Amino acid sequence: MMFRNRLKTIYVKDVLLGCTPGRIQSVGYMQVIPLVSDLSDDRFVSPVEAEAEVGTSDYGTLNFRNPSNRVMIVPCHAGYVVKQAAQDHAMAHAGVIRSARERSFDTAMCVQQSQGGLIRRGDYRMLILPLALREHALSVRKETNYNKLWNAISVFNRDMGVQGEANLVHFLKHFRKELDEFVAEFECVPGQVGAVILVDDQVVGIERTPSHDYWRSVWPCLIRECYGSLAIRVAQLKGERAEAPASRVGLPDDIGSLDELESVIAEIAAQEEERAKTTVRELLDESLTLTRDDSIAGVHVETVEHGRFTGQVIRQGERIVYASLPVTKKWLADSKWQTAQPFAI
Question: Residues 211, 41: contact at Cβ < 8 Å?
Answer without folding.
Answer: yes
